Amino acid sequence: MITKRIIPCLDVKNGRVVKGVNFKGLQDVSSPVELGKYYSDCGADELVFYDITASFEERKLFTEILTEVASQVFIPLTVGGGINTLEDFDRVLKCGADKVSVNSGAIKNPELIKVASEKYGSQCVVLSCDIKRVNGEFMVFSKGGRENTGIEAISWIKKCVDLGAGEVVVNSIDTDGVKKGFDIELLDLVCKAVNVPVIASGGAGKIEDLIELFKKVPSIDAGLAESVFHFGEIEIKNLKEILKQNGIEMRL
Amino acid sequence: MIAIVDYGVGNLFSLSSSLKKIGAEVVVTGDKKIIESADKIILPGVGAFKDAMNKLTQTGLDKVVIDQAKKGKKILGICLGMQLLFERSYEFGLCQGLGLLKGEIVGMQGVLSKDLKIPHIGWNALKFKKESHLNKYIKEGDHVYFVHSFYASGCTDSLVSVAEYQIEVPATVECGNVCGCQFHPEKSGEVGLNILRAFCE
Questions:
Q1: Closest Cα in chain A to B126
Q2: Chains A and B: how many Cβ contacts under 8 Å?
Q3: Deepest in the core among A111, A158, B42, B178, taking most CB within 10 A?
Q4: CATH architecture of B2-200
Q5: Domain segments of chain B: what residues?
Q6: Is A90 assigned a catalytic role?
Q7: pTM of the complete model beyond 0.95
Q8: Is CATH 3.90.1010.20 the right assignment for the domain spanning A5-245?
Q9: What is the mean pLDDT of each successive set of 10 residues along chain A, which is 252 residues long?
Q10: Centroid of chain to Cα B48
């Protein structure tokens, strides 16, 4: 059977990997190429590179770095950040990305998912969304989690999957950066709503959090995290061995 | 020299990078003469069967691949490239393939139970069905990366390995000098590189 995936995410700015707790206070961690190779060697099942730059010049630097990563790392690569048009898809796919994740670009223009999945295939289009509880309702946030879009999250995800998104990354703002475990309630709702792979993000602090994730939400496909991997709090090889011992299907 | 057939389908950057990584001399080309002069040929492909087949026919590369295969040159199809090696596909209606391998391409929809996600996407373990030089540097149970919604059916003769996804999904096929992988060896880490290494030898 298909294994559950463990995915480190690398936020890239000015050619370096950074991680912000609750999206604020960015801190330089390491080189994307070095970290990419390191993660691939220690058993990461996939890598996500998130371009958090805005200027044209920095974006050019990002694609150069992506090309370098893709020529040395031979596991699936997903790229996100600043994806607003088909040209953006084209730009990162040419650098060796396998999947492209859209977030704000889809909120501004949901049709982007449709045209991109028709052109490149659904397997290539990943919907990423930042979700937060507001008065007991799950809402989609934009601009790195700062602005409430007023869109209800579950119906949004369903709509995007209908438009052609082949995978969904669910990032809970409530649990992100807090390191007290994933947002089980939200993830369970999303998994019940769609039949494409769902990737959990936000909240991993220790190995037990990932055991809980895969046990409590059996249909979740992957767990994604950043700082706990970058700072070595969780070592991927060790994590995957322990998950396997707990009866969770893993690639070792 | 290994020729990766470029017929305008998909991104060949990772594939050519992975071959360079294992020390193979590689050319990405749509040029008939270069393909004919290559020692081995790789037929890649992503997307829909019919589109890919149309592009191969329009460029005349379908005949080149068939000719070279019949002359005994080693050919490896990857993902959709593997599917094209078969007789026909039923993706978006019937479409003839290159006919180098016996069997046909059918959809998973309606075959798998509803709780299983389609496409079959992610890392799955290989189960060996027969001996092959492609398995030389890997072992049974090794994981490779799949992304597909259609699979080869009726290909028992050429079946080298399968992956369990309720049904046994053909993973590697081989018949004489013609072989193929349904998964992406260029995205399957060290195991994938070892399969490419075995093919390139």
A1: A1
A2: 78
A3: B42
A4: 3-Layer(aba) Sandwich (3.40)
A5: 2-200
A6: no
A7: no
A8: no
A9: 95 78 46 86 94 78 91 94 92 91 96 93 94 97 90 98 96 90 97 96 95 97 90 90 97 95
A10: 14
